[in-house]
Design brief:
The structure holds 2 protein chains of 2 kinds. By secondary structure, chain A is of the alpha/beta class. Chain A has 15 helices and 17 strands. The longest helix of chain A is centred in the N-terminal third of the chain and has 18 residues. Chain B is of the alpha+beta class.
């Protein structure tokens, strides 16, 4: 599998918690950025067959319709060059609920987009206040109904928990919140424990004590409560932060990342992983627009075999199903346990489990994956 | 100049002296000023506080190694005198070294801060000087400071030490005041060395240092006789014999000489490989003119404080061994032997003269040799009398025999002198009581200051006594101690179990009456110091298999990155690698990871 990721680093409004690379949209600037992204797309040759496309950000839906149209056209042209048709297994675009209207939908319908990802985060007012977002349930419901009426039915919703302590965001309040999500009948949920990054509005508030993070106890309890509630809707966890009711709705594009497969990154500050002249390279485009236009990179990491193996472990163990041991052996000529002998200890005390040629983290301990990774690597 | 008459003439012009002072009272500055006035050092070349050459010394404001310099001074009588200024270490751990360097002198300058007065450490060293029959020149320093009260300090010197202070030199080393007066006093008061250059050779070894080309180089003071290049020297205590390749003095630059004779303070290079053959306090003689008689005062130094030192990375064991060997070349008072801990693997049980000595060695291993180490809590040397009538010495608590085999245990006590402003007498007494001290005496130095005397088990001092003393008295107390022999105590071994397994490196020996609270405090402290693990980990304290305290380290709640998509991948790996670096500083004991700090938890218990 090989994916295309297009990063639109523009937003209409900066959320308090977001540390993605983004800028507030202004018209001239938007045109400059979009032209540059289109140029990068148009210049891409010799890419392999693209199985998936993902347009993320930032907020792709914050673009003016002509600009969005340009991007989507450039992607279509690229697909014609690589795939010789417009059939893509999964083609996702991220939308902000406020941006959804019939004009946008009509534009999207012109392209082979078959999956939408909508950032809601929470319907709880107190949580919304902290995150700096407003999402009115009735309004969102009407927008999603509109999408569904236009045959966009494969929809992911983003949910964020661990914003407030459990004394405020109680299990009952959390359940109400999640029930509102489920009432919108998504096919997929991405559920994130809030990460307070230093260089965000929230990070600054946290450093002054204006905002206080819930403790790890609350975080865990909200996580467990969430899993319980989602289970009643037949949503199961397939990756640390991702849930769906059906295997076919698991994000194929994101699984390219977790399977340690290649993808091309387009746009300022976008990352990619490609094999170029036999070398495995993880790179990140420059985040300053002028440097980006000159095709400068921010990072360029040539991987050794052991780096690649490390990534295989770091990413693969995020999946509930874990790592395919046969594929691992075929790829590296060594078994997972021989390459990472510490895993044997973890298997012994059931932190990890080996079953049907898959090796994975015991679901009970998935929540301390980083700790486990530090043991293994 | 090789005839003995000239040597005798020359020795009349020699003055050998030391400076005695409390930390911060200005010893180094005075030494610097003396060097300036005697033109020993080009002022431009002069680093601040030249005699203290090790970085660590300068940072801690202490002198660890002794140094001696030869200076010339033309006095007001027109005669050129030869001064040997012998530096002394300024800390309680090195009392014996101080006494030997004082024994190399005929006089001492007693430096007292004009506003702070006499401190316990100064007092101890003055007594050492008096014991060695030295002439003492009182110098009151920092007289330029607004709080200076020279008259009060003079009275204190007279009352506390019993010295006539009427002719005390009033000085400000910083301003260069009083230095010439001091040098004139040295000429007048300090006697010239006695001794015959033709007599059988007796030279006092008061220090040594290691030079990678010449081996161990002893610093000596010639009491009688003459040592020449080519002579065969013999160390009387150890019997070792070497051929002298070079002799010389420091000015402070090294200067070779043809011989060293009566009154000279210099160095003797003789390709000595083993530092243990060059003991401070030993007498050096020559086979060419051998003396059978040893100079008085020699004593083999015994380590007072012990701890286990282990490399964090097991493969650094050999490097650690090499580091200890190198440190020992310059410091014969450091002892070490291999030991193995179940928890920490292979390492060394090291012996030190005291706590500062231990700190300095540990820091030098990490800083100069770049080896990350784990040090266990310090212990003392217990005398354990067994029911079968034998006695074993135990300096590692985990090796204490089973209680059923023990008849009694004796532990080392020290006689402690604490000088403190009188308002702190109450809190100090309370502290000493808590530390199982026995009150012996209390004396008023003046209306505001008191000297308190206690007998205290050394083991109590090695834990947190200094820090407690400092915090109790806002830093106003000064403290000195000397070993006062062994006494029987009701002692038990307190074991710590992590996840049900005994961690030998965490065992301590404590007084029976304090075992329960100590055990409780220790497990509470460990609960805080040991990070959460994948499982809940019980921390228990036990005496002879009986659990007396328990705490649980809760299982890790959360350690996962919520989002990991295309743009997060590289960052994620870097973060993990960085965090893994941090984990390296922890020691895996069974299934539990323990940070370095946990092994010193006992030192941080707040009572």
């Amino acid at each position: 599998m090989f994916g295309l990721y297009v990063h639109i680093p523009l937003c209409r409004h900066i959320c308090a918690y977001c540390d993605f690379f983004k800028m507030v949209v202004s018209n001239n600037y938007q045109d400059k950025v979009i032209n540059a992204i289109c140029r990068e797309l148009d210049d891409k040759n010799h890419l392999p067959y693209l199985d998936t496309v993902y347009i993320g950000g930032g907020t792709p839906s914050s673009l003016s319709l002509p600009n969005l149209d340009s991007i989507l056209t450039s992607i279509n042209n690229l697909l014609m060059r690589t795939n010789h048709n417009l059939d893509v297994v999964e083609y996702t675009i991220e939308l902000n609920p406020e941006d959804i209207n019939i004009e946008l939908i009509n534009l999207l319908k012109k392209y082979p987009i078959n999956r939408l990802s909508i950032g809601i985060q929470s319907f709880n007012k107190e949580v919304q206040n902290i995150l700096g977002r407003q999402s009115d349930y009735e309004l969102i419901k009407s927008k999603i109904d509109l999408l569904k009426a236009n045959n966009f039915s494969n929809i992911n919703l983003d949910y964020i928990y661990s914003v407030l302590p459990s004394s405020i965001y109680t299990p009952i309040i959390q359940e109400k919140d999640l029930e509102l999500f489920m009432s919108l009948k998504p096919t997929h949920l991405s559920c994130y424990s809030l990460i307070v990054e230093e260089k965000t509005i929230l990070g600054k508030k946290a450093s002054t004590g204006e905002y206080i993070r819930p403790n790890d106890e609350d975080d865990l309890n909200q996580y467990l409560n969430m899993k319980k509630i989602l289970k009643t809707h037949n949503f199961h966890q397939y990756e640390i932060s991702n849930y769906t009711s059906d295997y076919k709705y698991e994000s194929k594009h994101n699984k390219i990342y977790w399977h340690n497969e290649c993808y091309v990154g387009i746009g300022p500050n976008a990352s990619g992983y490609e094999i170029i002249d036999g070398q495995h390279i993880r790179y990140t485009n420059h985040n300053k627009i002028n440097e980006y236009e000159n095709k400068q990179l921010l990072e360029n990491e040539v991987l050794t075999i052991s780096d690649i193996m490390d990534y295989e472990i770091i990413l693969g163990l995020r999946l509930v199903e874990g790592i395919d041991e046969i594929k691992f052996y075929e790829k590296f000529g060594v078994s997972v346990c021989d390459a990472y002998p510490k895993i044997k200890d973890l298997l012994k005390n059931e932190i990890m489990i080996e079953k049907d040629n898959y090796i994975f983290v015991n679901e009970k301990h998935l929540y301390i994956l980083d700790y486990i990774l530090k043991e293994i690597l | 100049m090789s005839n003995f008459e000239e040597m005798r003439e020359r020795s009349k012009r020699i003055r050998n002296f030391s400076i005695i002072a409390h930390i911060d009272h200005g010893k180094s500055t005075i030494a610097d000023r003396i060097l300036e006035k005697t033109k020993a050092v080009d002022i431009r070349e002069m680093k601040e506080q030249l005699l203290d050459s090790m970085d660590l010394e300068r940072e801690r404001g202490i002198t660890i190694k002794l140094n001696a310099v030869e200076l010339t001074y033309t006095a007001s009588d027109g005669i050129e005198y030869i001064f040997h200024l012998i530096d002394t270490p300024g800390h309680v751990d090195f009392t014996y070294e101080v006494s030997r360097s004082l024994a190399a002198c005929e006089g001492a300058v007693l430096v007292v801060d004009a506003s702070q007065g006499i401190e316990a450490q100064t007092l101890a060293n003055v007594y050492l000087a008096v014991d060695n029959d030295l002439e003492i020149i009182p110098l009151i320093n920092k007289i330029d400071l607004p709080a200076a009260d020279p008259e009060k300090v003079k009275k204190e010197i007279e009352d506390v030490i019993g010295l006539d202070a009427s002719n005390a030199v009033l000085a400000s080393a910083k301003e260069g005041i009083g230095i010439i007066e001091l040098l004139e006093e040295v000429v007048k008061i300090v006697p010239a060395p006695k001794g015959d250059p033709e007599a059988p050779v007796q030279a006092l070894v008061f220090d040594s240092y290691y030079d990678s080309y010449r081996g161990v180089v002893p610093s000596v003071r010639i009491k009688q006789g003459t040592i020449r290049k080519g002579d065969h020297i013999k160390m009387l205590a150890t019997g070792a014999v070497y051929e002298v390749t070079e002799v010389g003095v420091n000015t402070p630059k090294e200067k070779k000489r043809d011989y060293l004779t009566v009154g000279d303070v210099g160095w003797v290079a003789a390709s000595i490989k083993d530092v243990l053959n060059v003991r401070v306090g030993d007498t050096m003689t020559t086979l060419e003119n051998e003396s059978k008689e040893q100079l008085p005062g020699y004593r083999q130094l015994n380590s007072m404080v012990f701890c286990g030192i282990y490399p964090i990375e097991a493969n650094k064991y050999d490097e650690l061994k090499e580091a200890l060997e190198k440190l020992q070349l310059n410091d014969a008072s450091l002892t070490f032997e291999p030991e193995t801990s179940q928890a920490l693997g292979h390492g060394f049980r090291c012996g030190f003269l005291g706590l500062l000595h231990m700190d300095v060695i540990e820091e030098r291993i990490e800083r100069e040799f770049k080896i990350e180490i784990i040090a266990t809590a310090p212990s003392v040397d217990y005398h354990v009398y067994l029911t079968n009538g034998t006695m074993v010495q135990v300096d590692n608590p985990s090796l204490l025999p089973d209680m059923t085999l023990i008849k009694r245990i004796e532990e080392p006590y020290v006689a402690a002198t604490i000088m403190v402003p009188s308002e702190f007498v109450g809190p100090i007494m309370e502290l000493c009581q808590q530390k199982r001290g026995t009150f012996t005496d209390m004396r008023y130095i003046d209306q505001t200051r008191v000297s308190l005397h206690y007998d205290i088990p050394l083991s109590e001092i090695v834990y947190d006594f200094f820090d407690r003393l400092k915090s109790t008295t806002k830093g106003y107390a000064s403290f000195d101690y000397e070993l006062a022999g062994y006494k029987e105590s009701k002692l038990v071994k307190l074991d710590i179990l992590l996840n049900g397994e005994r961690v030998d490196a965490l065992s301590i020996i404590v007084h029976k009456d304090f075992a329960y609270p100590k055990g409780r405090q220790l497990v509470q402290k460990l609960r805080k110091l040991i990070p959460r693990q994948m499982f809940e980990v019980p921390v228990q304290a036990a005496i002879s298999n009986k659990i007396i305290a328990r705490e649980n380290i809760a299982a890790l709640r959360k350690d996962v990155l919520a989002k990991c998509y295309g743009g997060d991948v590289s960052r994620k790996k870097k973060l993990l690698e960085k965090q893994k670096e941090g984990k390296k500083r922890m020691k895996q004991v069974g299934s539990v990871e323990i940070p370095q700090s946990a092994f010193l938890a006992i030192l941080e218990i707040d009572e």
